[in-house]
Amino acid sequence: MILEAEPDIAVVGEAGDGRQALEQVRVLQPDVVLMDIRMPRMDGVEATRRISADGAASGGSGRASRVLMLTTFDLDEYVVDALRAGASGFLLKDAPAAELVQAIKVVAQGEAMLAPSITRRLLDRFAERLPSAGGEAAGAEAGRAEALLTERELEVVRAVARGLSNAEIAGELFVSETTVKTHVGHVLTKLGLRDRVQVAVFAYESGLVRPGG
């Protein structure tokens, strides 16, 4: 009801579990999938992983659906896994209707839903689970980033990992918002990342940003 009330949003399908969601996405090819994490038959993380894999396999020939996860702080311990699986962001289940609508529109435009209040708490909480390899691998990734990125781009990476918006980064670095967007674009290209969410996860995995830092 909330989404159908929006003139520029059309709900093209609904699913009761992850497997059905995956089937619907493959047929309907929606711009955005609003995905729960905890579902029967196939959870939202696995469904997201397969949706992302489908998009990658298309090689740009098909329209890749972007996934916005629904989560709760106290119950869901799979947010980092969801981001690694290819989710473009996450939203609290008790978010106001206006925030839900805005998040969907942001993700539809190709941006990541990286709300600062959620990002800081979740990435700090799950940071000890982030490194999938040993310290040497993380150090190698940090070294690669430092070799590829300018000092200003590294500053932007650290700011994104802290959950700052473009406007907040611009104010902190005393540059224009357009300049920040340009830096973010360069970071994505140089590191081969898809969006701001992946930048944040990369920053924690590589050690460029420390939990609570």
TrEMBL record:
GO terms for molecular function: DNA binding. Residues 1-108 form the Response regulatory domain. It holds the Pfam family Response_reg. Gene3D superfamilies: 3.40.50.2300. InterPro entries: CheY-like_superfamily, NreC/VraR/RcsB-like_REC, Sig_transdc_resp-reg_C-effctor, Sig_transdc_resp-reg_receiver, Tscrpt_reg_LuxR_C, WalR-like. The modification 4-aspartylphosphate is found at D36. GO terms for biological process: phosphorelay signal transduction system; regulation of DNA-templated transcription. Keywords: DNA-binding, Phosphoprotein, Transcription, Transcription regulation. Residues 142-207 form the HTH luxR-type domain. CDD domains: LuxR_C_like, REC_NarL-like. It comes from the Bacteria. PANTHER family: TRANSCRIPTIONAL REGULATORY PROTEIN NARL-RELATED (PTHR43214:SF24), TWO-COMPONENT RESPONSE REGULATOR (PTHR43214). This is DNA-binding response regulator. The lineage of its organism: Bacteria, Bacillati, Actinomycetota, Actinomycetes, Kitasatosporales.
